[in-house]
Structures are given as C-alpha cells and as structure tokens.
Amino acid sequence: MQKNDVNQNQELARWLASPVVADADKAELAALQGAESEIQDRFYRDLEFGTGGLRGVLGMGTNRMNIYTVRKATQGLADYLNAGILPKVVAISYDSRNNSALFARQTACVLAANGIVAWLYPRLQPTPALSFAVRDLKAGAGVCVTASHNPAKYNGYKVYGADGCQITLEAADAVLSAIERLDIFADVRVMDFDEGMRAGLIRYIPEETLDRFIQAVECQKVDQSADNAPLKVVYTPLNGAGRECVTRMLADIGVTDVTVVPEQEWPDGNFPTCPYPNPEIRQAMEKGLALCETARPDLLLGTDPDCDRCGIAVPVTAGGAYALMTGNEVGVLLLEYICRLRTAQHTMPQAPVAVTTIVSTAMADPVAKKYGVELRRTLTGFKFIGEQIGLLEAENQADRYIFGFEESYGYLSGGYVRDKDAVNAALLICEAARYYRKQGQTLYEAMQALYAEYGFYRNELHAAAFEGADGMARMQAIMANLRAAPPAALAGYPVACVVDYANAAATGLPGANVLEWRFANGAKLMIRPSGTEPKIKIYLSAVGSTAQQADAINAALAQASAALLQ
Fold this sequence. Notes:
The protein folds into four domains: about 1-45, no CATH class; about 45-205, Alpha-D-Glucose-1,6-Bisphosphate, Chain A, domain 3, CATH 3.40.120; about 215-455, 3-Layer(aba) Sandwich (Alpha-D-Glucose-1,6-Bisphosphate, Chain A, domain 3); about 455-565, TATA-Binding Protein, CATH 3.30.310. About 50% of the residues are buried. Helix 13 links the parallel strand 12 (about 355) and strand 13. It is α/β, with parallel strands linked by helices. The strands form four sheets. A six-stranded mixed sheet has the order 1-5-4-2-3-6, sandwiched between helices. Strands 16-21-20-19-18-17 form a six-stranded antiparallel sheet. It is globular, with a radius of gyration of 24 Å. It contains 19 helices and 21 strands.
C-alpha cells in the first residue's frame, strides 16, 4: 500500500507520538528529521506481505522489518486462523539473523493474545525443521523468521500452511486482506511472553520433534548397502542455523571426518566474513574453499542462514583444485544418482515422479526419460514442488515422489517436509560422493560424464536491481512493454515461440508474471520479477555438443537481453 508524500511525514509523526512505540525506537525515528528521502523510503508504503510473507530491511517504519510490522502481520494471520476451521495452533522457528529471536517471540505473544497456541523452537533451527514441526504438531500454520540468503540488513517472516508448505496464493491473499484491515498500533493485541507461557498459550517445541525431523531426513538414505566408503568433509553453516542438524546427521550416517569452517561456525547475524550469505555466491564459500586447500576434503558443503539451500565444491580430480557446482548441476547429479541406485536396487516405485521448476535446467528431461520418470515442472518457488508432493499424497501415491529440485540450490527427496531441505541435501550429496568415490570418480568427474552422455546444458542467471519508491513501478512497466512488443529475435537467434505464464489456461499452471522465449536452436530465455527482492531476473539456457558452444550462445543472449531491462 503506497502513501503520498504528505502522509509519509504524517505517519512518521504518528509513530513518534504513539505510546506503543518504545523510546529507543522513537529515538531512531527522531534522527530522521530532515532526511526526506530516508523518510520517504521508510514510510512510502507498508512492507509488502507477498506469497511468502514479509521480507525487508531492518529498521523503524512501515516499510521496514521491526516488531510493529511483525506484530501487525501476525495479527492478520491470527484473524485469518480464528475466522476459519484450521487448528488454532502455530509453530514458530527462527534463524541467526539480527532480531530473529525477538521477532519470533513477538509473533508468539500476538498469537497467544488471540487465543492461539504458539509452539516456539527453544533455539534457532532450520526452515525445514519448521515445515516438519507444523505437521508433527498438527498446527494450522507455521512462521519462520528468516530472510534466507539476503544480506545482513534484511530479515523476513515466512508463513506456512497446515500442510507444511509455504502458504498458497489464495491463503496469502486472505491473510493480506486481514492485515490491510488493521491499524498497526490500535488493532494489534499482544500478551506478555511469560504470561503466555504460564497460560500454556506459548510453549517450547519439544526435543522429540527435532529428533523426529532428523530421523526423517536419515530415512531418505538411498544406498541400502552397508559398504560406506570413508568421506572427508569441510562444512560451513555460514553463521546460520544449520550447524546442529547437519553435523548431527553427518555423524549418524558415519561421516565423522568433518571440519567446520571456524570463522563461520557459530550464529552471527552480521555475517562478518560473507556479507551476502548465499552458497550460490562464490564469496560466501571463500573461507571454506581456502580451508579445502589445506584440509583436502572430498567435499565442501555450505548451507545458507536458514539451512534450506546447500552449495558444494568438489575436487576437479583426486588431489586437484576445487570447483563450485551450480544448483542445476547438483540437482541433475542427484536426480541421476537416485534413479541409478533405486533402479539397481529394485526400490524404484511404479510410475516414479520427479519435480522441478520452469526455470531449472532442461537437462533433467533426458535424465528422467532414460529412467522412465515423469518429470513435472512448476512455477518458481519450492512451495509449488511441495504442492505436487501433497497432490500425490492425497491420491495415496506419495511413494511415487522420488526427488525435487530448483536451480537456486534447493533439493528434497522425501515428503516428510514440504520445503527444500539442506540437511537432506547434505545427506544425498555425501551419499553420491561416497558412491562415485568407489567408482574412482569425484563428483566433478561424474558430472562431466553426464554432460558427455546427455549434452552440455549450460544455464546462467542475470539480475537487475530496481531499488527505491519507483522500483516496483519500473519493473511492472518493463514487463508490460515486453508483453506488448516482444522481440522477434535476440542476438541473431529467431524466437520460435513465446510463452506467457500469466495465461494460466495456456500453461496449465497458476498465472505468474513470467515470460519465456524459446529459440530454434534449443536455447531459452525467461524473465521474471523476483517475488522476494526488488529485482528482475533473466534465466538463460542453452545446449551444445561442447560446453564452449553452449556458453557462447548464453553469452550472446545475455548481452542482447540487457537492453530488455532499459
């Protein structure tokens, strides 16, 4: 909801006058006097509650993550639950980000004040542990306080449904409608945390729930043989929430030679050694890569702050330099490994199903075809993969699901949660590394063998940021212009067809603000505004008989596509 300039200053004055706002928070606001551009950015709109919840910069103001915007969102969630038939129970988790524990407790306080039982993890835990807890505790919803892999200045608030998936588009709209009816101060009910504990409305999630989560992860083991080759691992939780669950799981599966990157071992919301704590980014993995040069592991694992994404680096050859693998490469490698092992062990279900997204690599298609696997593609966002798992479960066919992945480093091989799980990914990656080590290959060499068999599929992601009050309007205008006048060719490659994912009837998927151009040479370009950041993303895909050939096609498309965002 956008406000005009007069209202922005009026809203600032209202916050300064409100008895609800703490003195320290008023001091932060008072320091803004005269800084018109900063006042505008903090108050020009309410922080958007999108399909995944809230995400924004920390600080005071309606367009910031703070206890007041968190309380208002939670009041809207409480009103939504109290108006419906879902259980009046919510599970809550949080990661290592600044104010995550505070926001989680405030969430519990608002829920309790509305008569809703709030189950709170007693310490930070991964996002997939929250997805598991929602179902384990038979909750009507879940909240995970995290900004995933964003820089330290951000935090966020992800909402989950009773099925353990991030809430559906319809539920998000209903919660947003409830939020928009509220005044941020007058309409929000808050109970004291200790009072909520005494009343039994705020409770700590028992250790047994976390135990069951880790056991469920370990049940996803693919290799049924007892011949576990030794494995040496360097692991970095990137100062996030993954350390406890990942190291515990590794020990349980017999991976005991584990070195945790010391500078990134313990929770720290400032992320001092990785300003952008995303295992997709080389900078975040640099400390781990440096340690690999002396420790010489078989594998480097990195999980993001809420431990739902997993990145890896592997030696190119035994004793050689280390190379990072992309999310698409790991997804295809794990899909092929699961299919290969389950076929050989006669554990593949009838009519197996794998799921990926429309922006993930096309290399998954020939792999699935080889093994007789139905490959389903969804919109971007792992919740859509989770929905497919739920549909299979509703048809009493849950065992058909064997694996899901997305290019942004998210993987899941079981239906015990409905979100990507880096703990599960670490288990599968270690299993695959052990398997290929027994074949005399590194994971890098195994991937090169898959390229030689299926073709060199290469994928690139480019993004342009659109910050500030006019950023969203610019993004919308760009997408509208591309729909009105799509290019007939790019980089000299004729466009064979255009797919507009806003047309749900044509795609069979929910409507989405995504455009796709397919070229006669098998290349593909997709463009979509991010759902969580003020960015437009361009996904490029090409296939060739060599990596160089495919890379050249993507490079030409990348150069030509930059003009599309002007």
